[in-house]
Write a structure and sequence with these properties.
The chain is α/β, with parallel strands linked by helices. The chain is built from 19 helices and 32 strands. The strands form 9 sheets. A 7-stranded mixed β-sheet has the order 6-5-18-17-19-20-21, with helices on both faces. A 5-stranded parallel β-sheet has the order 8-7-9-12-13, with helices on both faces. A 4-stranded antiparallel β-sheet has the order 25-26-28-29.
Length: 678
């Protein structure tokens, strides 16, 4: 059997005369050497099925979920005390299905598998902007997790207790999270740039017993102290009995005025003065809680989403190895904070025996070159950033291809918002020509992906390469019918291992059902507005709750952003639907707000240019009724612009949780605009 996942097998129903040529096609040797091909061979041998294309492998994976996830478990070499004989029970229940109900394992044990004494290779390489550089071997990491785990046990931490981090993206954050997992404690974190109320809105719900916090962080070359915030957090969280302070911006931070505070080194020395021993990994059920994640909180107090250790491990192993082709010794990077699910996604790469490349701080140090310095110096193989970062580099006319060979780089990943087709062009013309550009999409709700990339498939401009294996993703129209080649709602019709266990403080699962299963009964409704393409790829047009509906025509916000932000005069934009006229119920007009480049003004001529460009490249329905200038656009701390918050401000409605925003002061730019009164 010959396994060829490239263009010829991508979709037998595609139009052979179409002019859409792929931007990148994997070489035959790349396909042959990939995890995907090896996995397909294993499936063929074990189950005697013909899976000689990605389409056939994907179809088999969703038609035989039990067999598929068993094959993933064995192929990725999950470490467990017992796997059990049952891979999936109650498959017809959505939610309610259970994966590997008899399995017992430990998440951290799987991530620390390269801990043999002779292994001096890097487990973590850390850059704190251009101020701090550190590296830990796999053995160093194991030993530090061992000491931290022992210290937690000495403080009485037990399975199910919550351990919180108010931390930058640094090695100690990974160490603390893995130490918690060795015991079965539940890790939860916020990034160090969160304000006090944002932290309390999250940690206050889950009542952690130990809080890890750094003394500050670096931001665009500046030192940002955080101990005042840490002191206030400790004073307002009565559940916290110990605050462990990690020196980062100051070797000797003053912590006397923080309740229950102790420096990291002193804490370890007091509880584990001897050399680290072997870790006691508590064997836990597949569905034991591992992480508590938080929704963005822009429409109210954040939902606390509880994810399982087994589901998170198995899903990430599948995504990393089969889709990302991560292999032992690869060096994996994602620009993220500890308040975004991509941090949790990143650290699981240790289970594939990869090196984590951690960066904390602004990605725009030295006009955005610092991440490419990091990539080139450390032999980065997988480079993950946000779509907004790539767009900003393009606007700055940064051309890394001229100065950085990036010889080891095989895959570039992008998420956070839809990557526009022009973003694809930028990567291939200005970063590197021979790599797999993997635009990916999933979310905090599943701590994983619905769609993304594969090293065995071609890359088409503006498209996510494929629906993920084992994910029964479909696009539903308004009537709840599956459609292809049409825009609609992203859904998943069958269970998957990282469906949340539950929401914290939601005993009857009412909020859980409302979040995912209210729109289409027994079907996961994700809230993305998208389309499955002729190549079996996916195009995402934005969040469906932000979809515009002028004149009864549904328009994804990304369709407008793509056109507007292609203009040189415009840095970024945000579009909303304004109820207009107020006396006519259900009538909406589109209002576009633009942030211009320095020195530009929103003249009548520029407004005409914007509208003309939108009309020519889309339809007359896409043309906004109003175009207004702002100097800033509000966004979450993960960099996502918040259309709903802006819409609330325009309609004089409350924005319930401004602490969820990185720049809540920007909302004032949209209040009481005279231009919106006529």
């Amino acid at each position: 059997l010959i396994f060829s996942f490239a263009m010829a097998h991508s979709n037998p129903n595609a139009n052979p005369n179409s002019n859409d040529k792929p931007l990148w096609i994997p070489k035959p040797e790349t396909i042959a050497a990939s995890h995907m091909t090896a996995f397909a061979r294993a499936v063929h041998s074990r189950y005697c099925v013909n899976v000689d294309s990605y389409a056939s492998l994907h179809a088999w994976s969703i038609d035989h979920l039990d067999d598929f996830w068993n094959a993933v478990w064995d192929y990725t070499r999950v470490i467990a005390d017992t796997k059990g004989v049952r891979g999936l029970i109650d498959e017809d229940k959505m939610p309610g299905a259970q994966f590997f109900p008899d399995a017992k394992l430990n998440f951290a044990e799987n991530l620390l598998r390269r801990s043999n004494v002779s292994d001096a290779t890097d487990a973590i390489v850390f850059w704190g902007e251009n101020k701090v550089k550190r590296r830990l071997s796999h053995r160093d990491l194991y030993d530090q997790v061992a000491r931290t785990s022992q210290a937690m046990r000495a403080h009485g931490v037990q399975a199910g207790d919550r351990i919180a981090g108010f931390m930058p993206n640094m090695p100690e954050t990974v160490i603390a999270a893995l130490a918690a997992a060795t015991i079965g404690a539940v890790w939860t974190s916020c990034s160090a740039d969160f304000g006090l109320q944002g932290v309390l809105d999250r940690f206050g719900q889950v009542e952690p017993t130990i809080l890890f916090a750094a003394d500050g962080y670096f931001g665009a070359g500046k030192v940002i102290p955080t101990l005042d915030t840490v002191r206030a957090i400790a004073a307002n969280l009565p559940s916290v009995k110990c605050v462990v302070i990690v020196p980062y911006v100051d070797e000797h931070p003053l912590i006397d005025n923080i309740a229950h505070a102790v420096l990291w080194a002193d804490w370890l020395q007091a509880t584990t003065p001897d050399a680290p021993g072997e870790i006691t990994f508590t064997s836990l059920p597949f569905n034991h809680p591992l992480y508590i994640m938080y929704s963005s909180g822009t429409t109210g107090v954040p939902k606390c989403i509880v994810h399982s250790s087994g589901g998170t491990l198995l899903m990430h192993l599948k995504e990393h190895q089969l889709h990302g082709d991560i292999k032992s010794g690869d060096r994996v990077f994602y620009y993220t904070t500890c308040g975004w699910m991509m941090w949790n996604w990143l650290i699981t790469a240790l289970a594939s025996e990869a090196t984590l490349l951690l960066y904390d701080g602004s990605p725009f140090v030295n006009r955005g070159s610092i991440l490419f310095d990091f990539a080139d110096e450390e032999g980065m193989t997988h480079f993950g950033v946000s779509a907004k970062f790539l767009d900003a580099l393009a606007k700055l006319n940064v051309a890394p291809i001229k100065t950085y060979p990036l010889e080891k780089l095989r895959m570039m990943l992008s998420t956070g918002s839809p990557l526009a087709p022009e973003g694809f062009d930028y990567v291939y013309t200005q970063i590197k020509r021979d790599l797999c550009l993997s635009s990916i999409s999933g979310g905090t709700d599943l701590i994983a992906l619905f769609a993304g990339g594969a090293m065995t498939l071609p890359v088409y401009r503006g498209e996510l390469q494929c629906l993920q294996l084992g994910m029964a993703v479909a696009v539903f129209n308004e009537a709840g019918k599956s459609v292809r080649g049409e825009k609609g709602e992203l859904v998943c019709t069958k269970p998957f291992p990282t469906m949340p266990l539950y929401f914290w403080n939601d005993p009857d699962n009412k909020r859980y059902h409302q979040a995912y299963f209210e729109r289409f009964p027994d079907v996961w409704h994700h809230g993305d507005y998208c389309e499955i393409t002729a190549h079996d790829g996916l195009i995402i047009y934005g969040r469906s709750d932000a979809v515009l509906n002028p004149g009864g025509v549904r328009i994804g916000t990304a369709e407008i952003y793509r056109q507007v932000e292609a203009l040189d005069e415009i840095e970024e934009s945000i579009v909303i639907g304004q109820d207009w006229p107020p006396e006519r119920s259900g009538s909406v007009r589109m209002v576009l707000f633009v942030r211009l480049r320095a020195g530009e003004l929103l003249t009548d001529e520029l407004i005409k240019k914007i509208k003309k460009h939108i009309r020519i490249n889309t339809t007359p329905h896409h043309v906004p009724a109003k175009v207004l200038q702002v100097t800033d656009i509000p966004r979450t701390r993960n960099g996502k612009i918040v259309e709903l918050a802006v819409r609330n401000v325009v309609h004089h409605e409350a924005v319930k949780n401004r602490e969820a925003l990185a720049n809540p002061e920007a909302l004032t730019l949209f209040e009481n605009r005279l231009e919106l009164q006529n």
